[in-house]
Amino acid sequence: MIALTVSDVLDADAAVLRISDLLKRNHDLTIPDAICIRNDSFSPEPFASMTELISKLWQGQIILETEDPSVLTKAVIPIMDRSPILIGANSSNLEQFTMVAHMFGCSLCVSAEDIETLFNLAEKAEELGVKKVLIDPMMRNMKQCLETCTDIKRVKEVLPKLDYEVVVRSWSGEYAMTMATVSLLTDDALIIVDDLDYDCCDTLSALLNSIR
Question: Count of CB atoms within 10 A of residue 159's CB?
Fold first, then answer.
């Protein structure tokens, strides 16, 4: 899955234009599959407003990304029937995130740089009632991306019960495209990018079609 980020500090008209451009491309291409609404405002009102706006324009998967679980409920309620993915859970806020995810039937992504900690958080989230858990190993560069994705794939081959989908944030630019490609080839992942022009969509669509 490929997701495009929309910040909640983006002007509403700019957000509408961003989604409109994507919808035009989707006549020819299959990606992005999702929109990731990021809580850059660190406030519940803009986050909820942007989520409501995007949900009216975009019928695909919606991802809500925030480090503060207290802003989630207001954003989730209007779209809870669409089973959004929540990103931002870590060792310090896991219980608050799992409470929201369990209450509204959302998938939850847990984050940690250490692989053992990451899998422990994922298992705990399941124990707390989350039906679908994803994992974010918080990779920051290409070397780390290749090594970590490979390590995770090996763990999942040995322990099939730990077959969680990996989430990779690859930001923007040519480096982001390379990182996204490596992630998809190593372990079919959910890739979140900040920018997606037509050529990037075309390249990633071809790659996804070849590996699925």
Answer: 10
The string of pLDDT tens digits covering residues 28-87 is: 666 788 999 999 999 999 999 999 999 999 999 999 999 999 999 999 999 999 999 999
Q: What is the pLDDT of residues 79-120, one digit of tens each?
A: 999 999 999 999 999 999 999 999 999 999 999 999 999 999
Report the pLDDT value the prediction gives residue 212, as an integer from 0 to 100.
Answer: 62
**Cα–Cα distance for residue pair 69/72, rounded to 1 Å:** 5
CATH number at residue 177: 3.20.20.20
- Domain hosting 13: range is 2-211
The alpha carbon of 65 is separated from its chain's Cα centroid by a whole number of angstroms, namely 7
Nearest to 67 by CA among 45, 32, 91: 91
Buried b / exposed e along 129-158 (16+ C-beta atoms within 10 A): ebebbbbbbbbeeeeebbebbeebeebbee
Q: Residue 85 belongs to what H/E stretch?
A: strand 85-89
Nearest one of 37, 138, 23, 142 to 85, comparing CA atoms: 37
DSSP code for 149: H
User: How many domains, the chain?
Assistant: 1
